[in-house]
Amino acid sequence: xxxxxxxxxxxxxxxxxxVCVISASPAGCEPFGMTVNSFASxxxxxxxxxxxxxxxxxxxxxxQAAKGFTVNVLASDQLNISNRxxxxxxxxxxEGDYRIGKSGLPVIRNALTSMExxxxxxxxxxxxxxxxGKVIExxxxxxxxxxxxxAGKYAEIH
Length: 158
Hints:
Blueprint: H1 5-12, E1 17-18, E2 20-24, E3 32-36, E4 39-43, E5 48-54, H2 60-65, E6 68-73, H3 79-86, E7 98-100, E8 106-108, E9 113-125, E10 128-140, E11 148-150, E12 153-155
Antiparallel strand pairs: 1-11, 2-3, 2-6, 4-5, 5-10, 6-9, 7-8, 9-10, 11-12
């Protein structure tokens, strides 16, 4: 039995996710970021997280060169940040949107949580690469609501 790709994508869309911008700045690249909703925790000890990158992403080569990345969990008032870095060929971080974190990685300002990570492992995931990162620095806001994505559109907790 073969799955219809559109039906599968729609089924996956029923799972509400947070929205993140993954940022990095490997040698030879200006700080950049891309919007994703494919983030998950992996382990508490060691502190590991993962996200998935399409093999045909215009950011693929830059993330391949990166020794680290930051997972920035966006707040509900950061819709403009999400939209900006979701655009094809528009991934250079805008000055004012980010700061340089303790690890030297770019961190999105005012994110709910930012996890600066060293690349722990990369895995083949079909049409994606799964990047696992070891969290080495963490910053969080004590309050705020997350920006969510569900059924192909943004959502908020009420």
